[in-house]
Each structure stands twice: as C-alpha cells, then as structure tokens.
Amino acid sequence: MRRAVVSTHIMKHLLFLLALCPALFAAQPNVLVIIADDLGYADIGVHGGKEVTTPNIDALATSGVRCTNGYVTAPYCSPSRAGFLTGKAQTRFGHEFNPHVGDEAKLGLPLEQRTIANVLHDAGYATALVGKWHQGFDAAHHPQSRGFDEFFGFLVGGHNFLLHKDAEPEFGSAHSHNMIYRGREVQHLDGYTTDLFTDEALGFMNRNAAKPWFLYLAYNAVHTPLEIAEKLKSRIPASVTDENRRGYLSLLLGLDDAIGRVMAEVKAKHPNTLVFFFSDNGGSGRKPFFAYNTGINTPLRGDKGQTLEGGIRVPFFVSWPGQLPAGKTYDHPVSAMDVLPTACAIANTQRPDGVEGVNLLPHLKGKKADAPHDILAWRFGPQKAIRRGNWKLVDVRDMEAKTQSGWQLYDLSSDIGETKNLAAEKPELVAELAKSWDDWNAKNMPPHWHGSPNEDPTAPQKPAAKAKKKQK
User: Fold this and answer.
1) Which regions of the chain carry the CATH code 3.30.1120.10?
2) How is residue 108 annotated by DSSP?
3) How confident is the model at residue 177 (pLDDT cuts 50, 70, 90)?
4) Alpha-carbon distance 123 to 119, whole Å?
5) Three-class secondary structure of residue 370 per DSSP
6) Are 143 and 85 in contact (CB under 8 A)?
7) DSSP states along 244-272
8) Which of 76-80, 90-94, 96-100 has the lowest mean pLDDT?
9) Which of 204, 264, 328, 421 is geometrically suited to a Cys-Cys bond with 408, CB 3.0 to 4.6 A?
C-alpha cells in the first residue's frame, strides 16, 4: 500500500514536470540571424541612405546595438557565410572561395566542420534555414545534413526573384537559379522570393513557439538579378533613371518590407529573441564586376570582392529587448564569426573546437570594456588585410588593372575611407602588422578549390569558346 502511495506521488511530480517542459523550453532565448546579400553600406537610412527609405531596417538598428565596426570574414558570399556558420576564419579549413564547379563530394563547407545549426540543434533548438545556402550541393552538404531541421530556399549563389511555377530549370540540375527546394524536394512556385522567404520564416517561428528555435533567414536581396516586382515599381523615385539602380532599390524596398513583417512578428509573439542582422559582404558597385548591383559603400573604399573596408565592413546590428540596450552604438571591431559563440552562451552549450569568435554579450552590455578581438585578419586569394585597434594594413587587388597594391597602412579612426596611405611614414608599424598577419596566416590552409578569376587571379582561365560554324 505504501509503495503504491509513493509511486503515485512520484508519478504526479513527473506529470507536473512534463507539463512544465514547454514553458521551460520557451524560457530559453530564440536566435534569429538575418543576412542580406551584397547590401551597400550607405544604402540604408541609418547609414545615410536617402534615395529610398528603409524604416524597418533602421528600426531594427535602433532597437538594439548598432556595431559601427562590424565585419564579415570574407568579401564574398560563400566564404563569408562559412565563417559565420562555423565561428572561425574559413581559410582555416580551405573554404576560401565560392564553390563553383568540381567534385561535388568535396565542393562546399567541409563536412568535418560543425555549424551553428549543429550546435543549437543538439542543445534542443528547432533549426531552420530559409533562403540562400551556397555551402555545397550534394546530399552530404545539404542544409539538412548540416544541422538544420528544415530548409526552404536555394542551394546556389543567386536566384531569380520573380518565380513562375511552370518555369523550366535553367541548367536542368540543382545548380539552377530558378529552383526552390523544400527540404530536398523541388518546389514549383509563383511569387516573389523575398515574400516567400518571409512567409516561410513566420511559419517556422510560429510552428515552434513551444520550444526554442534558431532561424537563419538568408535573403537573396539585394543580389542580382535586379528584377522589379510590379507592386514595388511606384515606390522607386522617378528621379532615379538608371535601370540597374532602379532594380537595386526595388530589391531594397522589398527587403525592408520583409524585415518589418518579421520583426513585428518577433515583437508580438517571440519577444525573447536574440536578433543579428548583417550583410554577407559589401555592395557590388564596380560596373565590370559580374555581380554588379549598384550598391553604394560610401564613405568606405572598395566593394565586394576586395579586402578594403567596402568589401568587408558591413551593416551589423544586434537586438535583444530587455537584455541589450536600445539605441546604442558599439565601436570596437566585431565579426560575424562572433555569432556562434554568442548563441552558444545564451543556449548554455559548449562551442565547437577551434572557434575563434567571442561571446559579444558582455561587451555589448558594457560589462567588458576591452575590445572583443586583439586583431582581425583576412585572406582572399592574393588579397590580405589585418586590423589591430584603429590601424589597418591591407594589400588589395585592383580588379580592373589586375594588379596588387602591396601593403598599405591606414588609420581608420581618422580615415575610414582608406585614402591616406601611411606605409612610407611608419615602416616599423607596417613590419609589425605584416608579421602579425604572417603569424595568423600560418594557421590557414590552401584553398580546397579555386574561385573564379574575379575572385582569385591564380584560378585557371576557361578556354575561349570556339566559334560556331555558320549553317548553310
């Protein structure tokens, strides 16, 4: 009789704890990472953009901490995302360039690397990627093989915005720019990708309201192609006559609308959410460049594909109502590789081996006054850079002349535009920083694959196409 009473007592406690589980899960913060694609530094209102308004992006910036020296780990799409996903420099594991062509079993984020999705999934989070992947194409490199429970988006580096469900694949394979996947199945859809990705993001958040979730929302706006949705045409200023620029601004308007929808949902239903927003690299404003999208990076010098500030310094906002101060700016350099260890800290889980990023929360909250990083360094083919404090040493590629600059030295505290090269005036500092870059680079490995000639001048050139014979 006594044993039965005890068993009943224990059972009641177990049932009570089980009933509490959803509430316990919900108490853990969600993590939302929103990445724009090729966003120009100066095109958003909070950075001085005036051609179109971006009230929702600006509101996100002021809802938390705007990092004025926010960097990505590479000036190009895929390697930059690999750095964010792993919390370390992608040159540590050979992911230096975009994965274009080659052996698909080896092409993409190396399989031994654990992602932020792996870590948070193992910590009990629901995980999803919505939008652009660009980390490999075969089954082993698929998002759902890399820690994501759900995937809705595309595998390649770019995608059309205006979708028609009866459209044929451009290349008849998974490399097509007009193939959207749900999981591993091709979807035939009508619509505008920015809206479709937003709808999917909202659905994922609400389906998983009873447990913590991690959402990587990777919009393809404002990457090419510069397609204009009918509903956005009237909002593009008539004073803008360049068709490329009009297309870019329409994508920016669509992106801002989407962020407004997402953040309204987060505020209303998921307030305990840590939100990161940044671009994968700088805007692409060089006309000869194949991904030219008219993005403006002023006052930064350079563009996507370069280790100048315009290629690697990006809009970077961190918001968490009630946990981080609103309307604050943070001026020490931070990096996209800091997202993973920051997420690990709030999920109370261990970071993977080799992570180089840091937990930003003590710094953004003012509990730590020192800079998160002693140095930040970059290698992108022959291009290289290192930043220590306000000093930056950079060797950049002139894409038009196809030449290297050699080491140039800039004081970013007074010369954010990298206009006054101080290398000749401070040779000792140049030597010191160059030695630091060499020490950092000694831990890197050669790239597992070549990039395109636009990225890497050591890449093999494609043979010239043979002229077609005229038909009689």
Assistant:
1) 376-441
2) B
3) low
4) 6
5) coil
6) no
7) HHHHHHHHHHHHHHHHHHHHHHHHHH--S
8) 96-100
9) 421
Measure the CA–CA gap between 392 and 385, rounded to whole angstroms.
Answer: 7
Contact between 335 and 363 (Cβ < 8 Å) = no
CB atoms closer than 10 angstroms to residue 233: 11
DSSP annotation string for 387-449 = EETTEEEEE-EETTTTEE---EEEETTT-TT--S--TTT-HHHHHHHHHHHHHHHTT----SS
Buried b or exposed e, range 258-288, using 16+ CB within 10 angstroms: bbbebbebbeeebebbbbbbbbbbbbbbbee
Query: What angle do the packed helices 55-62 and 243-269 form, to 10 degrees?
Result: 50
Length of the chain: 472
The H-assigned helical ranges of 131-282 are: 193-207, 243-269
Q: Which CATH number describes the domain made up of 376-441?
A: 3.30.1120.10
Q: Kindly give, in sequence order, each residue whose CB lies less than 8 Å from that of residue 284, ignoring residues fewer than 6 positions away.
A: 38, 224, 291, 292, 293, 294, 295, 303, 304, 305
Q: Please give the distance of CA 310 from its chain centroid, rounded to a whole number.
A: 15
For residue 381, what pLDDT is reported?
93
CB 315 within 8 A of CB 68: no
d(C-alpha 383, C-alpha 162), whole Å: 36
CA 75 centroid distance within chain: 11
Start-to-end Cα distance in the chain: 101
Check: CATH 3.40.720.10 for 28-364? yes
**CA gap 254, 249 in Å, rounded:** 9
How many C-beta neighbours within 10 Å does residue 100 have? 16
Q: Which residue has the tokens 């929360």?
A: 361
Question: Which amino acid appears at position 377 of this protein?
Answer: A
The C-alpha torsion from 445 through 131 and 267 to 335, rounded to 10°, is 20
Could you give the C-alpha distances from 158 to 60, 208, 257, in angstroms and in order? Answer: 25, 29, 20
User: Is pLDDT at 21 greater than 90 in this prediction?
Assistant: no
CATH code 3.40.720.10 region(s) in the chain:
28-364
468 has pLDDT over 70? no
Give which of 361, 353, 307, 393 is closest to 119, Cα–Cα: 353
